[in-house]
Amino acid sequence: MIEILADGVVKTFGRTRALDHVDLAVPSGALWGVVGADGAGKTTLFRCIAGLLRVDSGRVLPGRAGQARLGFAQQGFHLYPDLTVEENVGFIGSLYGLSRAAAAQSAGELLAFAALSDRRSSLAGELSGGMKQKLTLVCSLLHRPPVLLLDEPTTGVDPLSRLEFWDLVEHLRVGGSTVLLASAYFDEVERCDRVVYLAHGRVVATGTPSELRGGHASLEEAFLEMTP
Amino acid sequence: MSSAVVTAGLTRRFGRRTAVDHLDLDIAEGEVFGLVGPNGAGKTTLIRILCAILRPSAGSARVLGLDVAADAARVRPLIGYMSQAFSLYQALTVAENLRFYGTLYGGVPARREQDVCRLVGLTPDELTRKVAELPTGVRQRAALAAAVLHGPRLIFLDEPTSGVDPAGRRDFWALIRELSADGTTVIVTTHVMAEAERCDRVALMAEGRVLACGPPASLRAATGTIVAVVEADPWQRAYAELAARWPGTTLRGTTIRVSLPAGADPRSLLAESLSAVRVERIHATDPSFEDAFIWFIRQSHPVMA
Amino acid sequence: MTVTKPAAAGTEPGPPRVVLEARHPGWQRLGSMVRKEFIEIRRDRRTLALIVAVPVILLVIFGYAANFQVQHIPAEFAGHDSPLLRSALGTNGDFAVRLGVAADQAAAESDIQHGRVGVAVVVGADGRPARVLIDGSNLLTAMTAERELAPLQGASAGAAPPVSVDVLYNPSFSSTTFMTQVALVLTALGVVRERERGTIEQLMITPVRKLELMLGKTIPYLVIGLCDLVIVLLVSWALFNVPVRGSIPLLFGEALLFLTATLGMGLLISTVARTQLQAMQMSVFVQLPQLLLSGLIFPLAAMPWGVRWISYLLPLTYFVSVARGVLLKGIGPADLWPETIGLAILAVTYVSLAALRFRKTLD
């Protein structure tokens, strides 16, 4: 069953075509990666899939109708800097319909995983950049969503934390969640079941990491070659 | 060789939190010096103190021979700073931004502006475009241009390649090397280990302290470990089994890396953990810089692994 | 979301996947949003100061500033003379009573309108004061006169009908406008601030509904507006003896309608403004006409129709009439039908317009 879908998606901003007939279909339980240069359209694609932007044509899943089962860790910081970590987490949890008890339990585990437990009472605005990223990820996972969109969640995060992130995401995957991950780190992309290469709003290549690596020494080399 | 930066017992507190904790550093002129560490380690705070925009709570820091606390005003014209966030005005063109920053430093001759633009690789067309319209890679280069416009002897780059694709990162580092060749001292923070390895020396910071400092090669050697590189199928299971038993386990792509004492035999040591999976390849190698980084951090925080 | 799958063997003990849903997610979301807004308001010291201090400070400034300077307010009698009252007013140093008597109330009003007198007492054939007219356009005069003449109501004891004190062109209740100014601006800012900071993108991807979002951002400021009304009434009563002759619940009921309309305007502004600065500027642009055209300072009757139609678009116009009526004249709901309907129509209109423009997507 396809959990994440982009079917002939077109999105234009003014005169720029940000997405040009993008096709993508991620089956349940799979982990797919999206790579592309800055401005290739990764964030726009994710926002369309999450129902945050309307598509000009084409179809998406989960879209606006499926927001309750979707977790979306967006690029940048979109939480409340003047609320504490605990308050942010509690607030987001309630938006997803979690009861107080459930939200507290879920938050407790996730914050421990993310090594943020001792910063619960800190104002979110006071956290360092990487901690904010981790908090964003925690908030997107609170309701243990079956579908997960991660837009460059580890950019600007140190290697050890990136590993911890990965463990967090793996746990959800093990539970059956479907994940679409945009990443600038090729070693993360290598762990995906399939990879989609986006450039100038178009899908340039799709395949397993080994297929895409082809004869090159690394995935990174292969993509450098493929860049139009 | 003289020192570009010397700190002695440098400390900075914010309320109850100590961001920089009795730091001792000595950075030589003309060096490309890397600062790495987990988030919240104090790297940005340290840089702000050295740029004389934040005052130390205790200890001292001398930049290019001047004390940052006492001679802040004299320090500032000598240094350049490229911050993590964008420091250029989005609604202005690159050229307008450069002119603006030039005037802040007392006016920069047109010749210098041209030289800098050529150095960072900004095309005349890019100069006329508004910053907001340019891709990240070009914006970074423009920001670098603004930072070096006034000819500073020391520049701070705070995660300069954040959000830039690999090709752009490569070009940027070539630039850094060029600047250093001219005698400029470059202090750069990064989370990308491959970049850290390009520095002359690196300081690994955590919780306001320096855990290790030296050329990347010697940091790698200092761990006293070797790394067992394991390729197995299914890799997820292999990673889970190994991580459960060996605290020094990390993942790189689908390859598992396990930190073992020098001289150990990976095959025999890890055999038990790998019994349930099919091992495709297993061999020992010297630790990479990332391995060393993780090893040092975990050493200081045994709980974190 | 009640499926549990056992964690894969060998992985670290993972969090169980049983997650309980709230019983009424919509209400929970709304409650959450309102609570979050209040926390943010509480932490924003400057806004807090704005909400509490501004109406009170302005009220006090205007109130007390009026105290010192007014003396010898020209006053006159209309209709009939009353030697008793004349001597009473005459000994009161604040008034300079004219000789002669104006023909009737209309003449007195004309005198006030043209600034010849500041106070006129309309005396009935029985020698009792039937009506007192005060020129409210001069704030200082009005406040002083009001205070000094309050005992007059007591003077007509017994069977005589109470003397009504009409403060014409009544700015002393401009304190109510401060309350609305604060509430409107904060509402507009509230939504725009989320947009500016990027938190709105986080809200939009959750299952929260458009209605919940709108209500969540408005209810806190509705509550604050009503609290401000309480504060303003208390201060007015305590310091300046402003009477509350009518029904308080009625006043609050009308205030609720009035605030809904005003906050509807605020929401509408928030759908148009892109930055907080723009939101503030648009709010001011909307508030200024309200001050000038609502009948607060300049009487509606004196406005040419070319401009007067705007007054009827502004919620404050109706509420000024309501406040005046309820506080001073003690009139009941039956007499306030036109204003109530006017406020209701405006409330529905502005809120609907805002709802139409409000989107749960970025574009």
Characterization of the model:
The complex is a heterotrimer of chains A (228), B (305) and C (363). Chain A has 228 residues and is of the alpha/beta class. In chain A, α2 (85-95) packs parallel to α4 (129-141). In chain A, 60% of the residues are buried. Helix content of chain A is 35%, strand content 26%. Chain A has helices at 42-49, 85-95, 100-113, 129-141, 159-174, 186-189, 209-213, 219-226; strands spanning 2-13, 16-27, 31-35, 57-61, 70-73, 147-151, 178-182, 194-199, 202-207. Chain A is globular. Chain A starts with a strand and ends with a helix. In chain A, β8 and β9 (202-207) form a beta hairpin. In chain A, the strands form two sheets. In chain A, strands 5-6-7-3-8-9 form a six-stranded mixed β-sheet, sandwiched between helices. In chain A, strands 2-1-4 form a three-stranded antiparallel β-sheet, with helices on one face. By secondary structure, chain B is an alpha/beta fold. Chain B has twelve helices and 14 strands. In chain B, strands 6-7-8-3-9-10 form a six-stranded mixed β-sheet, sandwiched between helices. A four-stranded antiparallel β-sheet of chain B has the order 2-1-4-5. In chain B, β12 and β13 form a beta hairpin. The two termini of chain B are 40 Å apart. With 363 residues, chain C is an alpha/beta fold. Chain C has helices spanning 25-43, 45-69, 83-91, 105-113, 139-155, 174-197, 199-204, 210-240, 248-272, 276-293, 305-311, 315-329, 337-357, and strands spanning 73-79, 95-102, 119-123, 129-135, 164-168. In chain C, β1, α3 and β2 (95-102) form a beta-alpha-beta unit. The two termini of chain C are 31 Å apart. The chains are: A alpha/beta (228), B alpha/beta (305), C alpha/beta (363). The A-C interface holds A 47, 50-54, 64, 67-70, 72, 74, 76-83, 87, 90-92, 94-99, 101-102, 106, 109-110, 139, 143-144, 146, 167, 170-171, 174-176 and C 1, 3, 5, 7-8, 11-12, 14-15, 17, 19-23, 25, 28-29, 31-33, 35-36, 39-40, 43-44, 197-199, 201-208, 360-363.
In short:
With 228 residues, chain A is α/β, with parallel strands linked by helices. Chain A has helices at residues 42-49, 85-95, 100-113, 129-141, 159-174, 186-189, 209-213, 219-226, and strands at residues 2-13, 16-27, 31-35, 57-61, 70-73, 147-151, 178-182, 194-199, 202-207.
